[in-house]
Amino acid sequence: MTLLRLALRSHLGGFIATTAVVILLGAANSLAYTQIAGTDPAQRAVFAQQMEVVGRQLTYILPVPVQLDTMSGYLHWRMFGTVPLLYGFWSILAASGAGRGDEERGLVETWLAAGVSRARYLLARLLAFVIAVMGSVAAMMATTWAGSAAGNEAIPLDALALQGVGVVALALCSYAVVLVIAQLTVTRRAAAGVGGVLLLALFFVNSSARNGGLEQVRWLSPFWAYDRSTPLLRGGALDVAATAALFGVTALLFAAAAAAFGARDLGSSILRARARTGKPAFRPSRDPLLRLPVLAVIDQQRAWVAGWTIGLAALAAFLVSLTRTMVDALLQIPSMRVYFERLGPAGYDTFIAVIWGSTAMLLVSLFAIFQVNTWVADDSEGRLEAALAQPVSRTRVMVDRLGSLLVASALILAGSSVAVWLAASGAGVTLTGDRFVLGSALMITVPFAFGAVGAIAASWRPRLAVPALTVVAIVSYFTQQFAPLFDWPKWVENTSIYALYGTPMVKGVDWAGIGILGAIATIGSLLANALFQRRDVGR
Amino acid sequence: MTPTVASAIETRGLTKDYGLGRGIFDLDLTVGEGEVFGYLGPNGAGKTTTIKLLMGMVHPTRGSGSIFGLDVGSQAVDVKRLVGYVPGELPQFGGWRGDEIVAYLAGLRGDVAESAVEAIAERLTLDLSRKYRELSHGNKQKLALLLGFMHRPRLLILDEPTTGLDPLHQQVFYELIRDARARGATVFLSSHVLSEVEHVCDRVGIVREGRLVTVAPLEQLAGIRTHRVEIEFADAPPVDGLRAVTGLEQVTVSDHRVSGMLRGDPTALMAAIAGRRIVTFTSREPTLEEIFLSYYR
């Protein structure tokens, strides 16, 4: 029981974060539907027709849109097409933590020494995840139902419950996939990385099959099995065989993971590495970047920064490539036309600037938050102490941290901006060059501000730094997205930190807002440095 | 005893109060230049807190400390140019290779000769091509030693430096200490292992429950060389004679068995039991707590 209780505690962070996001999604999507689709049948028909045009461009991410003239159909497409990715992300973190993270921290060794069998340990972790996921899905469904009821279009509870079963089955299957991967790798990071890539590949196998590719192997993808259930649609149902297959594969993969865990050495992969050969090395690395301020930090994170740069550039190119079709279709929907008019003059360039701008700001803020997490870990894991044992001032460490954040953010933003420009040119959309360049360059103030505030939090209340910044980023993003849609007062929209950046590629630079962002970043950096001087390292 | 040479470390009323009696309190300590100073105490006594204060990692609640006349707080950067540090708790460098860790920290320091790194790594048989997470605890400790010694510092501050080292590499460590001393370096070494301190130190300070109990040259601290003695006699033991033995304290008698703490020379004890039939005679190094109870109560 103690083991299960501790396993449940290990899922607390993932549970809170995932549940908060899915609750927000459930409420937002159900409440937004009547707002954007209208209430009379004619409006609904136009909405459904145009969104289906848009939706067909998005089948690499979302299911094929059907019955968008109903709340249930819209939620089936928009919301329950998105949540598998969210639960998939949580599964990756949870399974890599259970399969490798606890081992890295020595917890598994402690449990085994206390007489817990390996199979029982893994089973307790799985059981705790089942309980956590079921709780999270129940909360999501309750909020979604409440939102649909508020729009006078309450979704039948039994249909929602069946949809929930599908989500749980997919989350468990994803968990089991990564748990097996964790037996083949050595570190948590590798397990999460390889598991994430594999799940993403399986996701795209299914997406590709929606568009006629890879149809022969789509059955391999758990996302395909999930897609087969349509309990929310008129005439739809839970595909019992496909859902049972998800649970069955979960059981098989879990058994395989448990067997591999039982057979391998702690700290090793089930795949035995070749014995090391060659001479030992006694000299320091010759890598010149390791000896340079700021660049040394970037050098340590080169794969991470490259991954972000490539990922954001690919996402930018994908979103921009859809611009023409999406704008043409969305502008046919009266509510969406109003939405775009509130954002600026209707046009492809406006769409790119607004949609890409808000997405990039959120993602680059998340990058800054990840960096803040690294700073907190540097302190708690002794790396900061090792650096400060050398003749370097705390100010130098702060400059290294913020400098590396700025350089890495600049690389990421530059890469994605080039991708946007090239994709826009390819799609025949002309962007205003000077505004685009200036707007892209000024976006650096966003991660800088997040980094500075994060540095204050890391020096003052390290445990709160990452959760607090994440809440600020997500609430700011959704406030900015929903304010024009629901016609919220301007002051509400201005509570978003992203409102300070504005839409420089559409309406020109809001120098006052950029100035405030710059001031937050500068004054925040100075304050963070002052707090850092007073901080007791490692406490 | 006041050192006759210039002081390498000096603290005046240095205090770090974590509350609930934890921390270090009113520490007045002077370590002379060129000295090898042992800082002894049981776990939780305040050794690591003292070291973190000297390294400027934590800030004092009150009092001050200086290293070679430089304030450990306001002149921390200058202090660290002169200091090599081995922390008590090893940092986690994850997937970094050993040679990358050395290059990064040597880059921050800027005064490290590659040949010095190579020489120490070879003496410690430490393969720097391996990832940190692949290293055993002992090899991680060797890397920490390399990082502390690689720039030939004037002062070495070592927090329980032999933890995890096998006996062979403990000897290499003692050689490194002797070499450092030979070139005039000062060493401040914390430990809870009495024999380790006896191996290399000139003077010893004993800290207990956050307070410095005593500081003295090793030879003056005869009480440190105490032994827990247990004797089982075949007949009734000579209790009065044993109680009269100089240096034998905490004498307890249970049937034919007598135990006590013997400080200093065992000659008087041997004389007291001469001619008696002895079944067993055991003598072991006492734990620090036993020393504290016998010597400082």
How would you describe the overall organization of this protein?
The complex is a heterodimer of chains A (539) and B (297). Chain A has 539 residues and is mostly helical. Chain A is 75% helix and 0% strand. Chain A has helices spanning 2-10, 12-37, 41-57, 71-79, 83-104, 107-113, 118-150, 157-184, 188-210, 222-227, 240-263, 295-300, 302-321, 323-330, 334-343, 348-380, 383-388, 394-426, 433-442, 445-460, 462-486, 490-493, 504-507, 511-534. In chain A, helix 2 runs parallel beside helix 7 (118-150) and helix 8 (157-184) packs across helix 9. The relative contact order of chain A is 0.08. Chain B contains 10 helices and 14 strands. Chain B has helices spanning 47-54, 76-81, 98-109, 114-123, 137-149, 167-182, 194-200, 239-243, 267-273, 288-295, and strands at residues 7-19, 22-32, 36-40, 62-67, 70-71, 83-86, 155-159, 186-191, 203-208, 211-217, 226-233, 248-254, 257-263, 278-284. Residues 1-5 of chain B have low confidence and may be disordered. Classes of the chains: A mainly alpha (539), B alpha/beta (297). The A-B interface holds A 104, 187, 189, 276, 278, 280-287, 290-292, 296, 300, 381-383, 385-393, 534, 536-539 and B 52, 55-59, 76-78, 80-81, 83, 85, 87, 89-100, 102-110, 112, 114, 117-118, 121-122, 125-130, 133, 147.
Count of DSSP strands of chain A: 0
Rg calc of chain B: 22 Å
Helix/strand/pairing category of chain A: mainly alpha
How much of the sequence of chain A is in beta strands? under 5%
Q: Specify the oligomeric state.
A: heterodimer
Major β-sheet annotation of chain B: 6 strands, mixed
**Element pattern of chain B in H and E:** EEEHEEHEHHHEHEHEEEHEEHEH
Order of helices and strands of chain A: HHHHHHHHHHHHHHHHHHHHHHHH
The gyration radius over C-alpha positions of chain A equals 25 Å
Estimate the helix proportion of chain A, in percent.
Answer: over 70%
